[in-house]
Amino acid sequence: MAKKNENAPILALRQAVFGDVPALVDLTARIYTPEWGHSAEMLRSQQTHFPEGQFVVEYEGNIVGYCATFRIDESVALKPHTWMQITGGGMASRHNPDGNWLYGMEVVVHPDYRGMRIGQRLYQARKRLCTDLKLRGITFGGRVPGLSRNIQRYGSAEAYVQAVVEGRRRDPTLSFQLANDFEIIGLLRAYVPTDYESLGYAAHLVWRNPALLDQPDIPAVKSTRNLPDSVRVATVQYLQRRIKSFDEFVTHVEYFTDIAADYSADFVTFPELITLQLLSIENEELSPVDTIRKLSHYTPQVKELFSRLAMNYNINIIAGSHPTEQENGDIHNVCYVCLRDGSIHEREKLHPTPSERNVWNVTGGDTAATILTDCGPIGVMICYDAEFPEVAKHLVDQGALILFVPFCTDVREGYLRVRYCSQARAIENQCYVVLSGNVGNLPGVNNFDIQYGQSCILTPSDFPFARDGVAADSTPNIETVLFADLRLESLAMARNAGAVQNLKDRRFDLYETRWLRHPR
């Protein structure tokens, strides 16, 4: 049987093409009935007028989400209108190539996939398009489907909407829009007269491009990458606690993934050897080597868990690390990086510690490649790997902008070695470094040591960054989650025009680092 290519995305967001039209006709008919769904002519017209503004989400080759946009002038977009008027009957014929606002014409999500944050992905795509085009913002008429059920209680559409805005009432659609940073500038009457749940009303919503709001112009740094201005990262300082089943482990991990996603993080990082917690389920008296091999039996469940969470919560997960038995019988300490497009990437610890080698018989991997994500290339260094400058340099030479360091240390001295070296890697490679560690202990659990951890998010040391080169820090040995917004443009500016320019100033005429190729 052919081996499944886990690096291949199974969930992808892309621009719509003409070949998608039949599937989109079926999708909109399922949502609105065949009579009111979008016709093939409407869908082709939308792509003809503004192809870069039409997006679809594919899951396992099937289209499960779709959104349509076009450009329009502020003088038209922010005045009262109906859906038919402003969209040209759904054809996007009002598209103005010089319009300074993006109009959200449609968002549709297949009902069987509404737990995977498909809508959120489509809204993020719109926001990226808006910022890339340097438009003033996004506007549209948003449904208020809870209005018909509550009109008698509130007496008017205005009163109902105000209750939703103030948090006294939840509307299934409007509350979602508000949570995605849209604001209401008014109500649109008879926006879609056949929307009986909304009584024909729509909330006139806007999202204003934050890059254009009273911000001074920043000199552009040329780049071949089309990357977001800012990446939000989360790192989990994870408390090791006794559990009775794998399902209980799932509950804890999903909780932190949900938290990070609720704060709109692009990445969430878990600690090295987070799955050692699974030893407390049976707690058998085995030799250390046999214990690690038994732990490796959980590998399929671990990979499925983190991949599912990445897609369902629309977040890229650095899933700590997990001891994994190789085809030749060796045990490697493997970090599974599960992206929100459904792809799974494996990165092995290159440098096992003396304890890992001598007690658990863990051997090191032999490659360190970057992983291309929707937020740019990233690299992974597992704990001890961060103490070898060659690893970080190799990853940054491949284009890595953020390095993730899942770690597991028993005492403060060991933790500080990892932290001080990670800070040095951030400075000498002018990149961001994110650390995630375990805290807590499991008394009475065989082959489990004590834990000392202080997760943090580190930056280079220069004017565009945090004062002490620390974007976020934690209290030692307490379970918590850290967040930081990391500006990729700041890295580009530092690398090109910083007070020091480590990447440019290396003396290649004096020294070099060469990585050897190993047969796979």
UniProtKB/TrEMBL annotation:
Domain (CN hydrolase) ranges = 231-488
Q: Which domain of life is it from?
A: Bacteria
Which Gene3D superfamilies does this chain map to? 3.40.630.30, Carbon-nitrogen hydrolase
* Domain N-acetyltransferase span(s) in chain numbering: 11-212
UniProt entry keywords in alphabetical sequence: Transferase
An example molecular function term from Gene Ontology annotations: acyltransferase activity, transferring groups other than amino-acyl groups
SUPFAM superfamilies listed in its UniProt record: Acyl-CoA N-acyltransferases (Nat) (SSF55729), Carbon-nitrogen hydrolase (SSF56317)
Write down what this protein is called: GNAT family N-acetyltransferase
Organism (species): Dyella psychrodurans
